[in-house]
Amino acid sequence: MRVCDLVGQLNLKVFCGEQGLQKKVTGAYVSDLMSDVMGNVKEDELWITLQTHKNIMAIASLKEVAAVVLVKGYRPEQATIDQSNKEGIPILGTHLQTFEIAGLLYDLMKNRE
User: Which of 61, 78, 92, 104 sits 20 to 30 Å CA-CA off 27?
Assistant: First the structure.
């Protein structure tokens, strides 16, 4: 499954980093605690969070995540958008709560196995 597939199927908004929409997605990690994400997210996973500041891109790049999904209608800050476009890591958005988008993503990925 690719990031662009999830954008269409989960009705996600693409804020930036469009050049990374063809990246593969192997799973997802949910956390708002930066040190937790640093220690546990895996390469090619989506990171679901409500954090919007530039530091999320540092972790996303270091851990080579497929994309970042912002929940509850949050929007990335301009510095975050600039870094996303530079790194080619998409930042996506949804108005859904974390629990809802994680559940939908789980069902979608589980049914592809």
Answer: 78
